[in-house]
Design brief:
The chain is an alpha/beta fold. The protein is 18% helix and 23% strand. The N and C termini lie close together (10 Å).
């Protein structure tokens, strides 16, 4: 069996947009070819990388959010993070994700290239998009939302983060809809899997709380869904293996969508 592989991850570079409060991605060569040369004439190079676990395409671990000091399943967040890392729900505890994936292209379903800034995606919007594309969301699915927001914005950090303009994304009704269907992971092409109203910035992130704290559903952000959308692929095999960074609240990930191909 052959598959067409869609790469849903975005490259990490120093210009990668980053959410407020998170360190940016940085990389520098620590050793260059010629710094040390072996007897056979060979040499090697390596680099130093610094980044947040939430920069670029990444997945949120359950340790990322709490409500009133409690993590998912009622664990005390302060106790769990003693010693400078989380002892439960770190990114190393996220099992590889292999299963059915669904693309919900809300923008295309509404006949637009991209949703407008600060536009909420409601449960009714999700159901309308599912009907438009003829897909059904099932328990255990990876559900990915395309807003079209990165188009013409990703290269401009201020525009992509939407600090003043707001960002389209799921509202609390959408989060409840996903939780009711017991999906395994939800994601989008935006900086935060949230409806961010104009000027609201990141002061309230109720969808993160509903999914990560209440429902035990992981979140993937900064996805590249444009190629899937161009080919009108709405069902696929979803594969993602987060980096096993012990005690981290999130980790870089390179998700793939696999579609059976006759060629």
């Amino acid at each position: 069996m052959k598959y067409r592989v869609y790469d849903l991850g975005r490259p990490l570079e120093i210009t990668t947009p980053v959410a407020p409060g998170h360190p940016p991605f940085r990389m520098a060569l620590q050793r260059r070819h010629g710094d040390a040369v072996r007897e056979d004439g060979s040499s090697s190079a390596n680099e130093l990388i610094t980044t947040s676990g939430h920069t670029g395409t990444h997945i949120d671990a359950f340790a990322h959010f709490s409500r009133e000091g409690l993590l998912f399943s009622g664990h005390d967040a302060y106790t769990a993070s003693r010693g400078g890392r989380f002892h439960i729900y770190g990114s190393e505890t996220i099992a590889p994700l292999v299963g059915r994936g669904v693309l919900i292209d809300v923008a295309a379903a509404e006949g637009s290239q991209a949703l407008e800034a600060g536009r909420p995606i409601t449960a009714a919007d999700i159901e309308a998009a599912c009907r438009h594309h003829g897909v059904e969301v099932r328990a255990g699915d990876a559900v990915l939302f395309r807003t079209g927001w990165p188009v013409e914005r990703y290269e401009d950090q201020e525009a992509y983060v939407g600090w003043d303009t707001g960002v389209p994304g799921p509202d609390e009704s959408a989060a409840a809809w996903l939780a009711d269907r017991e999906v395994r992971v939800a994601g989008a092409d935006t900086i935060a899997f949230e409806w961010l109203a104009p000027g609201a910035q990141h002061t309230q992130l109720p969808v993160h709380v509903r999914l990560l704290v209440d429902a035990g559903i992981h979140i993937i952000e900064v996805l590249d869904l444009e190629e899937l959308a161009r080919d009108a692929v709405h069902e696929f095999l979803f594969v993602a293996a987060p980096l096993k960074i012990v005690g981290a609240t999130g980790a870089p990930v390179r998700p793939l969508a696999l579609v059976e191909s006759a060629a």
